[in-house]
């Protein structure tokens, strides 16, 4: 008899505590919705920034490679081509003469050009430009080292640290 009473009491206590009420489910759902909504804002901002930075990094790399290809297409002894325009003009520039620099914040004349945000070359004029490309050429024996750096331009006229791309290539005079 005693075993039957214990069993009935344990069944009653289980049935009284078994399951979740509709009110508890509703409260949990509201709390979860409020928390999820609060997290959507930062996620949306993060996604937008990542997309923007990825696109800018891709474009700086593309424009850096474009300038490198333009310089590598010149003859090793070319010292007069104007490489600040495309297609390269045969006179009015420095060609592959030693000089230039790779600091976008202090460009050297004839070793810098500018590209608009839509990819059109602005030449030596910074007006309307979003990207700045600087390059440096140095010669050691029969080997020229060509370094090109492309960076984005900030609203204040300086250049951003990121995204920035640097490409280095060598050109030989060996026949």
Explain what the structure shows.
By secondary structure, the protein is an alpha+beta fold. It has one domain. 38% of the residues lie in helices and 25% in strands. The chain has helices at residues 2-17, 22-72; strands at residues 99-100, 112-115, 121-123, 131-140, 143-153, 159-172. The mean pLDDT is 84.
Query: What's the overall average pLDDT, rounded?
Result: 84
| Low-confidence residue ranges | none
Number of strands: 6
Q: How much strand content do the residues show?
A: 25-35%
How would you summarize what this structure contains?
The protein is 38% helix and 25% strand. The chain has 175 residues and is α+β, with helices and mostly antiparallel strands.
How are the secondary structure elements laid out?
Elements: H1 2-17, H2 22-72, E1 99-100, E2 112-115, E3 121-123, E4 131-140, E5 143-153, E6 159-172
Antiparallel strand pairs: 1-4, 2-3, 2-4, 4-5, 5-6
Q: Which short descriptors sum up this protein?
A:
175 residues
């Amino acid at each position: 008899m005693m075993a039957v009473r214990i069993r009935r009491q344990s069944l009653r206590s289980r049935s009284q505590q078994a399951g979740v009420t509709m009110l508890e489910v509703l409260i949990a759902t509201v709390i979860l919705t409020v928390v999820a909504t609060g997290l959507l804002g930062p996620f949306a901002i993060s996604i937008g920034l990542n997309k923007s930075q990825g696109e800018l990094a891709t474009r700086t790399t593309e424009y850096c490679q474009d300038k490198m290809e333009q310089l590598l297409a010149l003859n090793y002894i070319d010292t007069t081509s104007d490489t600040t325009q495309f297609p390269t003009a045969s006179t009015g520039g420095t060609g592959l003469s030693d000089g230039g620099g790779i600091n976008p914040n202090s460009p050297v004349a004839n070793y810098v050009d500018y590209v608009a945000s839509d990819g059109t070359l602005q030449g030596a004029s910074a007006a309307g430009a979003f990207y700045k490309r600087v390059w440096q050429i140095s010669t050691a024996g029969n080997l020229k080292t060509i370094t090109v750096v492309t960076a984005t331009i900030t609203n204040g006229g300086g250049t951003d640290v990121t995204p920035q791309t640097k490409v280095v290539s060598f050109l030989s005079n060996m026949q």
